[in-house]
Amino acid sequence: MAQYDLFEKKSSGSSLDIDAYLKRINCSREYKPSLKFLRQIHRNHQYNIPFENLDIHIGNQIILDVQKIFNKIVNQQRGGFCYELNGLFYHLLIGLGFQAKIISASMYSENGILGPKFDHLLIIVYLDDKQWLVDVGFGRSFLSPLEFVPDKIQMDYNRYFRIDDLPDGNFVLQSSNDSFSYKKEYVFSKKQHQFVEFIAMCQYHQTSPKSPFTQKKLISQPTINGRLTLTDNAFTITKMGKKEEFPILNNDEFVVKLWEHFNIRLRKNQ
After folding, report:
1. For residues 69 and 63, what is the distance between their CA atoms, to the nearest angstrom?
2. Ramachandran quadrant class, 167 (left: phi over 0; alpha: psi -120 to 50; beta: rest)
3. Is 222 within the bounds of a domain?
4. Which helix (H) or strand (E) is 222 found in, with range?
5. Measured at the alpha carbon of residue 216, what is the angle toward residues 264 and 207, in degrees to the nearest 5?
6. Arithmetic mean of pLDDT over the chain
7. Spatial CA neighbour of 245 closest among 261, 259, 233, 254
8. Quick check: 8 and 65 in contact, CB under 8 A?
9. Which residues lie below 8 Å from residue 45, measured CB to CB, with a gap of 6+?
């Protein structure tokens, strides 16, 4: 089957059910874009919709079609990974009247190797003569949009973030737990891209054995005081900076934790 048959086909023009989407993230609708509203929907999106790669491990094809993603995340109460979460959130922003564009990033691996372009999808929002970096599809993301001001240290709850200029005209996002020692997260440019341009990397990340998403199941979601993370072999509760890890002994236990803590039951070919 051709690659384009597997992924995004141009939308028929039907719009998203904005009210249903806002209900999914527990937000009331506002009819005028504002920084307060942007912060609210950005934070609530992450509190209510987890980052997860579970379809990859049960054989469900991830298709970059906005209506299909909407059905999965809103109607079926699921999560997704960056192409799904940020791709859908971009359409929510546009539907709410925000000025926004999709951009591409290259991720750093755990051993510091920089990945390819279109490795990650994120968003820039233009509001009140300022630019804001928006990302609800990154497993360890900031909860509030970051003001696009290079070298400015921005605190996001108990973590720190900084956007730095690079000599080639790109930018790098760095994060820190103490505001002194920073870790590079991803490199990006401000160039606008279309959803369809992420097809190849979306395919790669759900099929290649080299992709971190094919190597283990993962679902993670921030909470008011920490984060919940479930993988094939561990369930981790982070609360007030302290971590407790519990082993997952088999798939049955994984399924139980998935329902108890994330309210998700998986089905193939939903």
Report:
1. 8
2. alpha
3. no
4. strand 218-223
5. 100
6. 92
7. 233
8. yes
9. 25, 85, 89, 136
Q: Are 33 and 127 in contact (CB under 8 A)?
A: yes
Does residue 128 lie in a domain region? Answer: yes
Q: How far apart are CA 159 and CA 179, in angstroms?
A: 8
- Which residues are bridge partners to 222 per DSSP? 227
DSSP three-state, residue 98? coil
Span 76-124, pLDDT tens digits: 999 999 999 999 999 999 999 999 999 999 999 888 899 999 999 999 9
Answer yes or no: are the C-beta atoms of 128 and 213 closer than 8 Å.
Answer: no
| Largest CA-CA distance found in the chain, in angstroms, rounded | 52
Domain assignment of residue 269, yes or no: no
What CATH number did the domain enclosing 201 receive? 3.30.2140.20
Establish if 162 belongs to a structural domain. Answer: yes
Question: How many domains is the chain built from?
Answer: 1
Contact 84, 73 (CB under 8 A): yes
CB atoms within 10 A of CB 179: 12
Rg value, the chain, Cα: 18
The amino acid at residue 97 is: G
Structural domain for 101, as ranges: 3-208
pLDDT of residue 149: 97
92-103: string of b/e by CB count within 10 Å (b at 16+)?
bbeebebebbbb
Helix (H) or strand (E) holding 246: strand 242-247
How many other C-beta atoms are found inside a 10 Å radius of the C-beta of residue 212? 15
